Amino acid sequence: MSTGTYDKQWLTELEATLTEEFEAQSARLTQLTADTGDPTEAHTNAAMIAAARQSLEQISGALRRLTAGRYGNCERCGTAIPRERLEILPHARFCVPCQEKQNR
Questions:
Q1: What ranges do the domains of the chain cover?
Q2: Residues 20, 23, 27, 29, CA torsion sign
Q3: What is residue 52's DSSP assignment?
Q4: pLDDT 10s digit of each residue in the chain, 104 long?
Q5: 56-75 burial by CB neighbour count: b if 16+ within 10 A, else e?
Q6: CATH 3.40.50.300 given to domain 3-103
Q7: Crossing angle, helix 8-33 and helix 42-68, to 10 degrees?
Q8: How far apart are the C-alpha atoms of 12 and 21, rounded to whole Å?
Q9: What pTM does this model have?
Protein backbone atom coordinates (compact mmCIF):
# COMPACT_ATOMS: atom_id res chain seq x y z
CA MET A 1 0.00 0.00 0.00
CA SER A 2 1.37 3.40 -0.89
CA THR A 3 0.49 6.78 0.51
CA GLY A 4 -1.88 7.10 -2.47
CA THR A 5 -4.33 4.86 -0.58
CA TYR A 6 -4.79 7.44 2.16
CA ASP A 7 -6.86 10.58 1.70
CA LYS A 8 -4.63 13.28 0.15
CA GLN A 9 -6.00 16.01 2.42
CA TRP A 10 -5.28 13.89 5.51
CA LEU A 11 -1.72 13.28 4.32
CA THR A 12 -1.21 17.00 3.67
CA GLU A 13 -2.50 17.87 7.13
CA LEU A 14 -0.38 15.13 8.67
CA GLU A 15 2.73 16.43 6.95
CA ALA A 16 2.02 19.96 8.22
CA THR A 17 1.46 18.65 11.75
CA LEU A 18 4.64 16.58 11.68
CA THR A 19 6.62 19.54 10.33
CA GLU A 20 5.29 21.78 13.12
CA GLU A 21 6.14 19.15 15.71
CA PHE A 22 9.62 18.77 14.23
CA GLU A 23 10.19 22.52 14.52
CA ALA A 24 8.88 22.55 18.11
CA GLN A 25 11.11 19.64 19.12
CA SER A 26 14.11 21.28 17.40
CA ALA A 27 13.52 24.45 19.40
CA ARG A 28 13.15 22.39 22.58
CA LEU A 29 16.40 20.58 21.88
CA THR A 30 18.15 23.91 21.34
CA GLN A 31 16.88 25.14 24.70
CA LEU A 32 17.85 21.93 26.46
CA THR A 33 21.37 21.93 25.08
CA ALA A 34 22.00 25.50 26.20
CA ASP A 35 24.42 25.32 29.11
CA THR A 36 22.55 26.33 32.27
CA GLY A 37 25.59 25.78 34.43
CA ASP A 38 23.50 23.96 37.05
CA PRO A 39 25.08 20.53 37.66
CA THR A 40 22.02 19.34 39.63
CA GLU A 41 19.96 19.48 36.44
CA ALA A 42 22.49 17.60 34.31
CA HIS A 43 20.89 14.14 34.68
CA THR A 44 17.35 15.41 34.04
CA ASN A 45 18.56 17.49 31.12
CA ALA A 46 20.34 14.50 29.59
CA ALA A 47 17.14 12.44 29.71
CA MET A 48 15.10 15.25 28.17
CA ILE A 49 17.71 15.78 25.45
CA ALA A 50 17.64 12.06 24.62
CA ALA A 51 13.82 12.11 24.46
CA ALA A 52 13.82 15.18 22.19
CA ARG A 53 16.39 13.58 19.87
CA GLN A 54 14.36 10.37 19.69
CA SER A 55 11.22 12.35 18.89
CA LEU A 56 13.05 14.25 16.14
CA GLU A 57 14.32 10.98 14.68
CA GLN A 58 10.81 9.47 14.66
CA ILE A 59 9.25 12.57 13.11
CA SER A 60 11.92 12.92 10.43
CA GLY A 61 11.51 9.23 9.58
CA ALA A 62 7.76 9.69 9.13
CA LEU A 63 8.36 12.76 6.94
CA ARG A 64 10.88 10.82 4.81
CA ARG A 65 8.38 7.98 4.36
CA LEU A 66 5.70 10.51 3.35
CA THR A 67 8.01 12.07 0.77
CA ALA A 68 9.07 8.68 -0.57
CA GLY A 69 5.47 7.45 -0.86
CA ARG A 70 6.07 4.65 1.67
CA TYR A 71 4.14 6.14 4.57
CA GLY A 72 1.67 3.71 6.11
CA ASN A 73 3.48 0.54 5.05
CA CYS A 74 4.80 -1.77 7.75
CA GLU A 75 8.59 -1.85 7.45
CA ARG A 76 8.68 -5.50 8.43
CA CYS A 77 5.87 -7.22 6.51
CA GLY A 78 4.82 -4.51 4.05
CA THR A 79 1.13 -4.57 4.93
CA ALA A 80 -0.88 -1.41 5.38
CA ILE A 81 -0.83 0.14 8.83
CA PRO A 82 -4.43 1.06 9.73
CA ARG A 83 -5.13 4.79 9.56
CA GLU A 84 -6.46 4.66 13.12
CA ARG A 85 -3.02 3.55 14.36
CA LEU A 86 -1.32 6.27 12.35
CA GLU A 87 -3.68 8.90 13.73
CA ILE A 88 -2.66 7.91 17.26
CA LEU A 89 1.00 7.22 16.48
CA PRO A 90 1.87 9.09 13.26
CA HIS A 91 5.47 7.90 13.27
CA ALA A 92 4.51 4.20 13.49
CA ARG A 93 6.83 2.08 11.38
CA PHE A 94 5.20 -1.28 12.02
CA CYS A 95 1.73 -2.80 12.07
CA VAL A 96 0.62 -3.96 15.53
CA PRO A 97 1.58 -7.66 15.08
CA CYS A 98 5.05 -6.73 13.82
CA GLN A 99 5.49 -4.11 16.56
CA GLU A 100 4.72 -6.79 19.13
CA LYS A 101 7.36 -9.05 17.56
CA GLN A 102 9.81 -6.12 17.54
CA ASN A 103 9.27 -5.55 21.28
CA ARG A 104 10.08 -9.15 22.24
A1: 3-103
A2: positive
A3: H
A4: 455 468 889 999 999 999 999 999 999 999 888 866 677 777 788 889 999 999 999 999 999 999 999 999 999 999 999 999 999 999 999 999 999 988 87
A5: bebbeebbebbeeeebbbbe
A6: no
A7: 150
A8: 14
A9: 0.81
